[in-house]
Amino acid sequence: MAITNITVISHTYFYLLGIPGLEDQHIWISIPFFTSYIIALLGNIFLIFIVVTDHSLHEPMYIFLCMLAILDIGLSSITIPKALTIFWLNYGGISLDGCITQLFFIHFTFIAESGILLLMAFDRYIAICYPLRYTMILNSSVIIKLSIVVYMRSIVTIFPMIFLLKRLTFCKNNLLPHTFCEHIGLAKYACVSIHVNIWYGLFVLLMTVVLDIILIVASYCMILYAIFRIPSQDARHKALHTCGSHICVILLFYIPGVFTSVVQRFGKQIPPHIHILIANVCLLVPPVMNPIIYGIKTKQIRNRVYLLLFQRQS
């Protein structure tokens, strides 16, 4: 009886296709990508510069804002240059290790941003509910420890994905219809079971982003309860105004992500290129809009920008 040896080839090199179905529009699609990248870089760098150079802004709220801006710069730089390479040069080649590295930093950044938004909600809770103890509770030591916890949580939860992906054999295809690599998007091209990857991805989502959303909502319930107990209408208005920019950033960060998840699960009739465009919007919009929102709605930052841009030298 003859025994046939079957050699399974595992792909170690992949090709990101950009947005399949809209290849002839790649040049035009690249314009908002490039514009968004420039705005995100300049806006967030400028925001960091303002906070760092103005000692009156060296408060927990603005420190967390700087951390958010740094993550926004990282998220844009991880994804958009590769997408532009695909759009402009029609080259989406990426090694397996490069793909895993990219998706690691994308997921790490997303979870870290969610953690920073939770810290900012905690900051607003302490500022409004315990104003006299604000500086004592959120001192520099506490801020450093909380920041380390946020970054370590992201690393610890995402790091196992590297091994979960490295164990897979990719023999189905090496053409990825997307502009960037992501966990399940890569894993589904394996020729072995990926149930562990799916369940672990769900576990990470529940223990990080979903938990953060629950805690943020709980924080703002307590904040609103405290605000509406303030007898002075002006004081209530001021307290609500201080939370306005943060609430806008929270909605801008979570709503597109939730919308994307719903569309991917239940919008099977929606063309694939629409799914890819929506996923890219989720990565493009927050880095662009965060500095604009804080620049417009935060009086201290707005005044500082005005002084830097419009004040004439005497």
Automatic annotation (TrEMBL):
Pfam families: 7tm_4. It is found in: Cell membrane; Membrane. Its main location: membrane. Gene3D superfamilies: Rhodopsin 7-helix transmembrane proteins (1.20.1070.10). The chain crosses the membrane at residues 27-50, 62-80, 100-122, 142-165, 198-227, 239-262, 274-296. Residues 43-294 form the G-protein coupled receptors family 1 profile domain. GO terms for cellular component: plasma membrane. It is a multi-pass membrane protein. The keyword Isomerase does not apply. GO terms for molecular function: G protein-coupled receptor activity; olfactory receptor activity. Keywords: Cell membrane, G-protein coupled receptor, Membrane, Olfaction, Receptor, Sensory transduction, Transducer, Transmembrane, Transmembrane helix. InterPro entries: GPCR_Rhodpsn (IPR000276), GPCR_Rhodpsn_7TM (IPR017452), Olfact_rcpt (IPR000725), OR51/52/56-like (IPR050402). Odorant receptor. Belongs to the G-protein coupled receptor 1 family. PANTHER family: OLFACTORY RECEPTOR 52B4, OLFACTORY RECEPTOR 56B1-RELATED. This is Olfactory receptor. It comes from Monodelphis domestica. The lineage of its organism: Eukaryota, Metazoa, Chordata, Craniata, Vertebrata.
